[in-house]
Design goal:
Immunoglobulin-like; five-stranded antiparallel beta sheet; 2 helices; alpha+beta; 18% helix; three-stranded antiparallel beta sheet
Amino acid sequence: MPPWLYILTLITVLAIIIYITLALLDDPELQQRTLPDHNFKFEAGQELFKYIPSNSNSSDILEIQPRRGGRLLVTWKISPRQPAGSEKLVLRIYDSSRPEGYYDVETNHWHGKLSFGSQAGVAYYVAAGFKANQEFVPLALSAPVIGGSKPLLH
């Protein structure tokens, strides 16, 4: 078999394989397939948040911890930042059992503690930030916890 015939046969076989692969990927049934909606409420662009682990070297602390009786304790110490027109820190508590997914707690203090009741098996996490023009601007994000359990991230 001459080399040019071998190369021509190889190119033809590769072209057929590429054509079949592209035809299968362009199948309308595959394009219409979607993942099931499980009402996930914990989508967050990490480029918008600064995850702050609790350690003694960090000046900013935001953490949520389980306590006895199904309560959760939120502890925060955020360096004061003065955005235009807003002096209040807002703690946005995300709750996987609520349809809207979160509720806001406004505070005048850049450090403090907050305790609230939790439901067993429900995921919670907290974002600290401020509201500007009815939009929440996050400054820090805590690790998630399950109500009546221990933190999900160690």
